[in-house]
Amino acid sequence: MTDRHKTVTRNTYWLSPMTGSAVAAASFCGIAFVFHIASIIITASRCRPSPAAQSPPSPVLPPLASEERNGGTAPPVSIVRPVCGLDNFLEETLGASFELDYPRYEVIFCVASTRDPAIAVVQRLIAAHPRCHARLLVGDDCISQNPKLNNCVKGWRAAKHDWIIMADSNVLMPPDYIRRLLAAWKPDTGLVCSPPVGCRPAGFWAGLECAFLNTYQVRAQYVADALGLGFAQGKTMLWRRADLERAGGIAALGAEVAEDAASTKIVRAAGLRVRLTAPPFQQPLGRRGPIEVWRRQTRWARLRRASFPLYFVPEILGGAFFPLIAAAYAASATDVSVFATVAPLALVWYGAEIALAKVAQWPLPVFYALAALLRDLLLPILWLDAWIGTDFVWRGHQMSIAADSSTP
């Protein structure tokens, strides 16, 4: 063997591992981008506003246990709205409950404490809409460590109808709210939900929350729904009373710290599916602070990890951080300009998110790209925090997931 041949062989030997790792990095980046674009397409197809979405046809629903079908097209519905404190836009979001385009429904507002300042808002709205069947219930039923669920118990028990919607006080209900929920019900459905879409952000930190809620978390929800793995979202949940009663009633939602996680498991155990409305409903944000946004995201991450640990594991790969790092590594390993590689890929990644927001008519804050980049830098930290932390505070209530670590 000649000296030249030995040198070439030796150089090839040392370069092979680097070439292999560069190929692996480039492959990972490519797969991540394909999945990202596919998820954008799936979400855009479900979340694009359309005339059909504004006035969905009345669905063919399964028979009810104790209610007349009202001609078979518009079953009566009860809406249970837990209220706690004075949220941004509270009067507007609660007031939307009285303006729904639906022939027969009731609204039950639930407040846990007689000292809650939201009581005056609810009473004023009820007095201003005497034609709407609405009432306020005050009191607390401690069936779990979840204060929101405890607040809802009296409303669930007082509901007159067999179709019951549990809707957070900060959900902005459009006129076709009930019709859109019912239109999503199929024969194999056990629950219909809607993830919240952040709207009306004021300031950079509310824009960051939009980057978390809309183009990231809503997108994940609709991809899971498309795969037949829909997860309940506590902002809006449409139940058929009989389905939850068979599982033990509303108290069964206390099996998990988060009532939506318990709902998902109950529906799946019954062999049914959680389905999402299309498009989803909005939640006006107003002004947010950085600590407020961070605490909300850490709370949700810890709850996801506790309730669905196997589904939570791959979340570490969410966002553009790791794909772009992999692209930079592959470029440096092959003597290609890192900037010339990473910059166009970042433009494609975040450009696709911006396109999704435009198609879905979601808000695009001025500094959206910066907010989305910060979001992706925070995602690995949130993931690690979810495995370490167990406690959080929700509206002044100290809660813990330490004893809530069941597997999916």
Mean model confidence by pLDDT: 89
Beta-strand percentage range: 5-15%
Distance between the termini: 60 Å
Overall number of strands: 11
- Portion of residues in helices? 40-55%
CATH architecture title of the domain at 47-290: Alpha-Beta Complex
The CATH class label of the domain at 47-290 is Alpha Beta
Name the overall outline. elongated
| Structural class estimated from helices and strands | alpha/beta
Mind describing the biggest β-sheet? Answer: 7 strands, mixed
**Major sheet: order of its strands?**
3-2-1-4-7-5-8
Tally of contiguous helical segments = 14
Low-confidence stretches: 4-17, 63-71, 404-408
Provide structural commentary.
50% of the residues lie in helices and 14% in strands. With 408 residues, it is of the alpha/beta class. It has a domain at 47-290: Spore Coat Polysaccharide Biosynthesis Protein SpsA, Chain A (Alpha-Beta Complex). Strands 3-2-1-4-7-5-8 form a seven-stranded mixed β-sheet, sandwiched between helices.
What is the gist of this entry?
The protein is an alpha/beta fold and 408 residues long.
